[in-house]
Amino acid sequence: MSITLKDVEHVxxxxxxxxxxxxxxxxxxxxxxxxxxAEKLNELNTDNVEPTSHVLPVINVMREDVVKPxxxxxxxxxxxxxxxxxxxxxxxxxx
Length: 95
Fold this sequence. Notes:
- This protein is mainly alpha-helical and 95 residues long.
- The chain contains three helices and two strands.
- The protein has helices spanning 5-14, 21-38, 73-76, and strands at residues 83-84, 87-88.
- Heterotrimer of A, B and C subunits.
- Its EC number is 6.3.5.-.
């Protein structure tokens, strides 16, 4: 598979890029070089390799969901610059 000038023009159009003729030629060469490098992966023998989603084994490391006492409203509002009716008071964002 190789990238053509038409392919580069199509991708540039999708990305809403205006490319000069020189840039189109440059990107065509660069994209073909990337594909040629990626084709080296086809040379690897992967017959005995299991498909994986990660290189390393990933396990769930989340803790148990345990109910614990929380901070009181008075403690939470202790350093608040302004509060009203037990809630943080902030400047209005919308008019």
